Automatic annotation (TrEMBL):
Residues 1-20 form the signal peptide. This is Uncharacterized protein. Residues 27-53 have a biased composition (Pro residues). It comes from Candidatus Segetimicrobium genomatis. Residues 25-56 are annotated as: Disordered. The keyword Signal applies. Keywords: Signal.
Length: 253
């Protein structure tokens, strides 16, 4: 017994240095799975530039003023500018005055025949508009104009270019745009002064086609009532509108 115990102790004494030199290999912490490198997003084709609507502050001789195109329907004008501050019927056209905006629109047969402005925000270019001088007009359009009355002001009328300038002393007080070579059909350019007032005082609808887009799909009396309401806030009776339309049609024959 004592002998076997002694042998066991001797074996432990011999093996101890070997156990002391043995160190278990350190366990490595689990590494996260490698993430794929981020891929750059594909480049989107650059747009060809923003599609901007026509500027509402631009004056285009013979074509448009403040986005009002020559030939546009009266419905579009009323929808955009609301009720006019004044409505005047002449023997040539119907004149809608939107004084809040400094804009006047001339209507013939339900369509825009001319438009004018006294608003200095509206410009033909960076070098010409209301408030600029006669020299600026001559620099841009030259001397191929005729003298005449432009909405009560002495002015310069460029009939072939569809634009006219009313002058207050040496400055531009009003600019009016119309289709080329139609100055004689605009009451604001009437030779010798404004065109005379029409007898009835109502917009002339006799030349319009009833139940069509130009009358907002109303009958002629119905369309007349609608126009008068938007101009004055008053509904005239259908009977009165019918009488006015009949008188206008008789006068146009």
């Amino acid at each position: 017994m004592r002998r076997s115990t002694l042998i066991a102790c001797l074996l432990l004494f011999i093996a101890a240095p070997a156990f002391a030199q043995y160190q278990p290999a350190p366990q490595q912490a689990p590494q996260p799975a490698p993430q794929p490198a981020p891929q750059p997003l594909p480049l989107q084709p650059a747009p060809g530039g923003p599609q901007l609507p026509p500027s509402s502050r631009r004056i285009v001789p013979g074509a448009s003023l403040a986005g009002i195109n020559m030939g546009a329907g009266i419905n579009l004008i009323l929808t955009r500018f609301g009720r006019p501050s004044d409505l005047r019927e002449t023997t040539i056209d119907t004149v809608y005055n939107f004084s809040r905006w400094g804009i006047v629109v001339y209507i013939q047969s339900g369509r825009v025949s001319a438009a004018s402005t006294s608003n200095s925000l509206l410009k033909l270019s960076d070098e010409l508009g209301v408030g600029y001088r006669v020299e600026d007009v001559l620099k841009t359009f030259g001397r191929g104009f005729r003298q005449g009355t432009v909405e009560g002001f002495p002015g310069m009328i460029y009939d072939d270019q569809g634009v006219a300038f009313g002058l207050d002393r040496q400055g531009v007080a009003v600019v009016i745009v119309f289709k080329s070579n139609t100055a004689s059909q605009v009451s604001g350019l009437y030779p010798g002064g404004p065109a005379p007032q029409a007898i009835s005082g109502f917009p002339n609808v006799a030349g319009l086609r009833p139940y069509s887009a130009e009358t907002n799909y109303f009958s002629l009396p119905g369309y007349l009532r609608w126009i008068v309401f938007h101009a004055s806030g008053i509904w005239i009776t259908y009977a009165e509108a019918s009488r006015v339309v009949q008188e206008q049609q008789a006068a146009s024959r």
